Amino acid sequence: MAAAALFPIVGIIGGGIDIGRGYMAQARLQQACDAGVLAGRRSMSGATMSSADATEARKFFDFNFPEGSFDTDPFLPVDGKANPRFVDGPGDKTVNGFAETTINTSLMKIFGYDKMHLKVDCSSRLDIGNVDVMMVLDVTGSMNWKPDGSSTSNESLKKITGLKNAVEDFYNILGSGGGAQGSQIRYGFMPYNAMINVGETLYDADPSWLVGGVGTAEEDEWNYQTRRAHWKVPGTGLRRTYEQINVAGADGNDRDACEFKFGQNKSTPPVWSPGNSGYGSGTPLTQNGYYYEFSFYSYDRKSKNNKVCKRKVERYDSPPVKTTTWQPGAVFDFWEYDEFDHDVSKYVKSIKSSNPSALRPTLYNTPTSNTNGPNDRWDGCIEERDSYADITATTNAIPANAYDLDIDLIPESKATRWRPYWTGVEYLRNGSSASDSSCPTAGRRLAEYASYDSNPGLNSAGSTIYPGTLKSYISSLSPNGNTNHTIGMIWGARFLSPTGLFATENSKSKNGFNISRHLIFMTDGDLNVFPNRYNVYGYNQLDGRLAPTGTGQSDYEKIQAQRFQLMCNAVKAQGTTIWVIQFTNSSTVQTHLKNCATSESHAAAATSNTALQDAFGDIAKTIGGLRLSK
């Protein structure tokens, strides 16, 4: 009886042991499959797998389930197909995995059951909801260099090329949205240097947001550090004569005595005085009902004792009229350099190619009339609205009257409107043109792109707002100018905000679900702004909009750095995730950039073009949310 009972007992115990081993092997095989599809999908930079992606998936599978684990047999092809294998799933952004093997039994083999069959499958996808991504991109002059800071003429080695490739990779990973999940994915872009180009977007949205687009004379004038022409209307009854004296023996330098004394109708001791010719002293003067102007004409040193000085005498029946308003017959007199208003309405309208260009109000250097000047067309770069000039490097909150740092404020007055940046009219007090700043490529609002290189940008209603492709836009980015992080962050936030200028568009999604908002801030350098250069905040040494006019560059940049931190905090307070990528030759992210990011893990350093592409790719994958779908 004991012997008869032995076989059932062995069967029960052996079956339990082998089944338990099988379950453990099956579970570990499933884990390995899951790890493989996750790794394969994370490795992908597009919608389909490459051989390198499949290799990465197999590497993770093998790490979690080395061949022979749990006394399993070697993996062999199944129906002529690789085993394990990782392939594209149905639809984009999905990876499917399969693995089969057999495990050798221990006790059950005495009953003729030598092996147990193990089979698993798995799938991974980017599980994407509604996402808005605003890329704030540094396009300053140093982006024309190599990542190590050296110059190059090889386009493929330049940082700007690495950036363009990184943006394309980002799109290929995150994609266009839609599909079975009905997700909405929109992309916006804000290239910046020391300037920002948003004029046409503002004009299209509401011209009254701009000084020059309101429609009333007072609201459409803006004050520039500029110049004003003075004109002279010639007097009537002109009689021109020439008078001369011998200035030999005059006090001091005889040439000076000729030009600056006799020539200007001033006493020239001891050889001559105005009374000798019956005039009062100086020029111009009115005498005996006539108006006189005297001017130096010539000087001729004939001999030591004969130095002939000749002057021009112009007598008018009625005097010339001097005015700042041109009228027929007036001739240009001189320029006055100061802060003056210019009507900018035609200049603002010129942002549209269908409208004519605008006459530059500062004309040519010696204009012949009030229309004798070049015509300008606005390129879209702006001057910021009013700010608070007493923000310091330690200010920890945005003052209420710092309108430029208010993300959502809708313009309602000249102080809260934006102004056109007009290089041609800006002059210093010495008469020289002010140093200006380069205008970057225009920023783009949030839009959906069905593909990177074939489809236009659409708003949430499906209307085309950007007819060109995303590829052509990114290709147009051109490096130039200096670096003002603050203005890039300000306008990236404005174009992304669900409660500001574009709230109607930005606050809704097609499927009605919430939107996850992300701002990617990419810069290749330190803050580099100048108080003695005309930029988005005017010419600080004359305007004093951000700091007292005597502020030097070092203190000016410290103030701007603090304003940048204030803006980063304001953006994060809206619930937006900030990602920061520092694109320099240093692997250590600068403190002010790290502090701007949502967390330390949201800041990365890229020291090469390849590393920049990886950084953008990692953000895209994290935003997308890699998930096991099976």
UniProtKB/TrEMBL annotation:
Matching InterPro entries: Tad_N, vWFA_dom_sf
Domain of life: Bacteria
A family per Pfam: Tad
Signal peptide residue numbers: none
Gene3D superfamilies attached to this UniProt entry: von Willebrand factor, type A domain
Residue span, Putative Flp pilus-assembly TadG-like N-terminal domain: 1-40
Protein name as it appears in the record: Pilus assembly protein TadG
Species this protein is from: Parasphingorhabdus flavimaris
